[in-house]
Amino acid sequence: MPDIQPARYDVIAIGNAVVDVIASCEEELIDELQLNRGGMTLIDEARADELYEAMPPAREISGGSAANTLAGLATLGLQCAFIGQVADDQLGKVFRHDMRATGIDFDTPAREGDPATGRVLIFVTPDGERTMNTFLGAGQYLPAAALDEELIASGAILYLEGYLWDPEEPRRAMRRAIEVARDAGRKIAFTASESFVIDRHGDDFRAMIDDGVIDILFVNETELATLTGEDDFEAGLAQVAGKVPVLVATRSEKGAVAIAHGERAEVAAVPVIKVIDTTGAGDQFAAGFLSGYARGEPLTRCLKRGAIAASEVIAHYGPRPEADMVKLMEERL
Amino acid sequence: MPDIQPARYDVIAIGNAVVDVIASCEEELIDELQLNRGGMTLIDEARADELYEAMPPAREISGGSAANTLAGLATLGLQCAFIGQVADDQLGKVFRHDMRATGIDFDTPAREGDPATGRVLIFVTPDGERTMNTFLGAGQYLPAAALDEELIASGAILYLEGYLWDPEEPRRAMRRAIEVARDAGRKIAFTASESFVIDRHGDDFRAMIDDGVIDILFVNETELATLTGEDDFEAGLAQVAGKVPVLVATRSEKGAVAIAHGERAEVAAVPVIKVIDTTGAGDQFAAGFLSGYARGEPLTRCLKRGAIAASEVIAHYGPRPEADMVKLMEERL
């Protein structure tokens, strides 16, 4: 066990630095463009241009899974820092502004030249479901050299997103970050992000779980099934629960389950009047949960915070909280 | 009277090509940054950077007064084309995309080099009031040479915004466009935009009104007072009504008045559950009104359309309609 220094940050995240381009659309357009309804698909720039051409008028809002979670955590009063790769362009400036304006330290230098800052073309159908198409752009070139290791060592929790495990350079960077954080005695939180990521990198993830590298694992129901090969939710939970100190499994409108050090807790979803846009639901659930966990709150309360945060974000467009979250938690907890 | 050709477009607009950067903020920030609460202030790039630095996290949505009106008109099924100047950058592409995706023809070539595409930093206070700070960027260099005169001659109505009267090049371009449109026997619609514009260019506007150049004039209560020097609303109306065939004067929550060819009509504001962001209220009122007027509907019905369109846009962030406006009109008219 290393000699653990007091943490300067509650959470440090490494993730995609992207701007969401969010448009409402009819169901038919999803079919017409052959999109992966409800999922996240990696696309190249040519496909991004093609889809943008066909997209209804949109709004641009900073996104990125781990970045969204961090925004949620900062809104809830936690000290946060972000590591991610933007290009030196207007969308990169937008992303950086939105992070810093949320109170998050974000100093990874912008990358010169092409490609541009990543963007996610999000088609939101009338049921509120989001279909994401991600051009990673500059984000796929986050180099291990860009990591501020002193910074990483200074955060109580290092939060990583599976989405960024896909491109090679950021994957290497995250592996290095995990070493640095563990050497400093920090906790590793990991969100599996998407089943397709597990399809491609499940062996890595399972090895990390088996080796005890992951302290807090966030999955949704589908991801748990892909990760474990178990279609039955309870069987999936049983397979992973003993291997990670904290397992959080979300099930959309069916609520969520957490198993931590043998203790199990469940929470129902917090109902919303109308689901506008589900983008960021998982990210904000993670933010709510971690905001309680980082402060040592009981497991049920952590889950409740997650459900409240998720209910706020799906009631409006965009993946980050718009409400006064501290007040909302006070009212609803 | 020239030989009038059938119009290919219902409305052609010349206006600012800008992207709105919209953030919610507390009242105190307005004072702290010494903003002109509820108004629109022209700012240079240095001030834009300074204000952006101090701005909470934001969403980017295409804006521009005349462009917003056109978006409203297109949503209501009218054939529209836009003329305006963006730079060859990411925000310029966003603006062009959003116009075209709304069904508006927009072919003014992007301008190379600095400055960037214009942006409006909008601070929205908890009462929904918007405080706009506009860096015109490339927009201020719209040259008369960029006008497609054949296009202008092919629109039944040429719609112009006062905001763009301020920079010299676009003012010259709009004067030329007015000549072209009038020679083709088209109608000129003009929105005064803001009292500060009238402070600076009121003589131009009054001369155009006196000379019978303006067929349809949109003003709000404050602008009417600045334009006429009459603090009394009715006295202001009386001074202008005889000089323009159609006068539309909006009064926010007090509704609106139109006087056309001696006939007077009034409408109450359409109540909304909660005012989120008043940005675009005047623009969408104009869109609603013109959508009826262009189809020869009775004056009261045109006003009602304006009030409905305004009520939709102030119930969400951003200056352009998000609802199915054709359906909304059917339900509420």
Highlighted features:
333 residues, UDP-N-acetylmuramoyl-L-alanine:D-glutamate ligase, 12 helices
- Pair with the biggest interface: A-B, 26 and 26 residues
In terms of DSSP E residues, the strand content of chain A is 15-25%
Shape-level CATH architecture of chain A: 3-Layer(aba) Sandwich
Please report the distance between the alpha carbons of the first and last residues of chain A: 36 Å
Catalogue the unreliable spans of chain A: none
- Output the CATH class name of chain A: Alpha Beta
- Strand adjacency order, main sheet of chain A: 6-5-1-9-10-11-12-13-14
How do the SSEs of chain A run, as a string of H and E?
EEHEHEHEHEEEHEHEHEHHEEEHHH
Q: List how many beta strands of chain A DSSP finds.
A: 14
Percent helix range of chain A: 25-40%
CATH domain fold name of chain A: UDP-N-acetylmuramoyl-L-alanine:D-glutamate ligase
Q: What does the oligomeric state look like here?
A: homodimer
- In total, how many domains does the architecture of chain A comprise? 1
CATH superfamily of chain A: Ribokinase
